[in-house]
């Protein structure tokens, strides 16, 4: 691994206390990036930041960030700038899920998922882009990276609201790319399939609760086996290389793309 590949990149990552956000933060810092870890679970984000700082190379700070709040997003951007001088990349990774049979979806389920996965992505993109525009044109291309899902491109049973929220992430990626290049900002994303994280551990329990599976521990293997071409699930380490590519100069001539990292689940 090139310890300087992301040197000079200051990256704000949302939802970085655990799962893919934490793995990406560590991986970015190993390649020289400075990272601001924003999470509603600030203690978890602080633990990850401590690990990064103990290791050397890129530096890390942690901030309390509820991604659904414009004020919190603006404050996280400011904290990144205060710590590192400017912001070069925003990775909008925070996300939630809570499955429900279509006819049982209620307003609170809709609002909870749409607020975190979609509205917050828009807010984060806007606040980070606002700062990038203020910084003005730089030699480096500024980058916004959105985390979608297989659920951005294919309908899935009992996660209708999650699908709606993630299809919308694709739209934010497309529209943001068209609009923001004027300011030297690209907008890309990646779309994982089935990744063993706490999100899926919880989903596994919730799917039993709504009667989709009989026992806990069945859903991940079943979904991986029946829906992915590779017939296996993935781990955060399977995603980090693509995230680093999208943060690096190697992806400078790319915008409006969402890369599937899903073991061949969605092939278009
Ligand atoms: N795990 C999968 O199989 C999978 C598949 C496709 C896409 N994704 C997407 O990848 C992203 C990361 O998922 P993960 O599996 O690592 O999840 P995770 O549950 O392990 O981590 C999500 C993080 O987001 C944080 N978060 C939740 N609500 C927040 C809020 N309001 N403000 C700030 N932080 C908040 C949590 O505290 C947590 O640290 C999500 O957008 C998810 O939808 C996951």
CATH architecture identity of the largest domain? 3-Layer(aba) Sandwich
Count of discrete alpha- or pi-helical segments spanning 4 or more residues:
8
Shape: globular
Instruction: Give the percentage of residues in beta strands.
Output: 5-15%
Assigned CATH superfamily of the largest domain: NAD(P)-binding Rossmann-like Domain
Q: Which CATH class of the largest domain applies here?
A: Alpha Beta
User: If you average the pLDDT, what whole number results?
Assistant: 97
SSE ordering? EHEHEHEHEHEHHHE
Q: What would the CATH topology of the largest domain be?
A: Rossmann fold
Contiguous uncertain segments of 5+ residues: none
List keywords for this structure.
268 residues, alpha/beta, Rossmann fold, 2 domains, seven-stranded parallel sheet, 8 helices, 7 strands, 14% strand, globular, binds nicotinamide-adenine-dinucleotide
Write the layout of secondary structure elements.
Layout: E1 10-14, H1 19-30, E2 34-39, H2 42-55, E3 60-64, H3 70-84, E4 89-92, H4 107-135, E5 142-147, H5 160-180, E6 185-192, H6 198-209, H7 219-227, H8 237-247, E7 258-261
Parallel strand pairs: 1-2, 1-4, 2-3, 4-5, 5-6, 6-7
Bound molecules: nicotinamide-adenine-dinucleotide.
Nicotinamide-adenine-dinucleotide is lined by residues 14-15, 17-21, 39-41, 65-68, 93-96, 116, 147, 149, 192, 194-195, 197-200.
Q: Overview of this structure, please?
A:
- The chain has 268 residues and is α/β, with parallel strands linked by helices.
- The chain has 2 domains: 10-98 and 111-193 and 235-261, Rossmann fold; 194-233, no CATH class.
- It has 8 helices and 7 strands.
- Strands 3-2-1-4-5-6-7 form a 7-stranded parallel beta sheet, with helices on both faces.
- Helix 2 links the parallel strand 2 (34-39) and strand 3 (60-64).
- The chain is globular.
- The model has no long low-confidence stretch (mean pLDDT 97).
- It binds nicotinamide-adenine-dinucleotide (NAD).
- Nicotinamide-adenine-dinucleotide binds next to helix 1 and helix 6.
């Amino acid at each position: 691994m090139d310890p300087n590949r992301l040197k000079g990149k200051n990256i704000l990552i949302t939802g970085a206390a655990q799962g893919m956000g934490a793995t990406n933060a560590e991986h970015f810092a190993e390649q020289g990036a400075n990272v601001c870890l924003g999470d509603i679970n600030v203690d978890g984000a602080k633990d990850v930041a401590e690990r990064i700082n103990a290791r050397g190379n890129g530096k890390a700070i942690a901030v309390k960030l509820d991604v659904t709040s414009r004020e919190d997003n603006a404050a996280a951007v400011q904290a990144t700038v205060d710590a590192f001088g400017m912001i070069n990349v925003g990775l909008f990774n925070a996300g939630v899920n809570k499955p429900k049979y279509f006819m049982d979806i209620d307003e609170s389920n809709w609002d909870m998922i749409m607020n975190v996965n979609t509205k917050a992505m828009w807010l984060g993109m806007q606040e980070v882009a606002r700062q990038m525009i203020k910084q003005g044109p730089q030699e480096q291309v500024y980058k916004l990276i959105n985390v979608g899902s297989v659920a951005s491109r294919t309908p899935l049973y009992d996660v209708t609201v999650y699908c709606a929220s993630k299809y919308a992430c694709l739209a934010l990626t497309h529209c943001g790319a068209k609009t923001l290049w004027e300011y030297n900002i690209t907008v890309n994303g990646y779309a994982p399939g089935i990744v063993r994280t706490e999100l899926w551990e919880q989903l596994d329990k919730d799917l039993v609760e709504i009667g989709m599976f009989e026992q806990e521990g069945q859903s991940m293997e079943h979904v991986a086996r029946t829906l992915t071409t590779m017939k296996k699930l993935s781990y955060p380490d399977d995603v980090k290389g693509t995230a680093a590519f999208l943060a690096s100069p190697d992806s400078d001539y790319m915008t409006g793309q969402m890369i599937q990292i899903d073991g061949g689940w969605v092939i278009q």
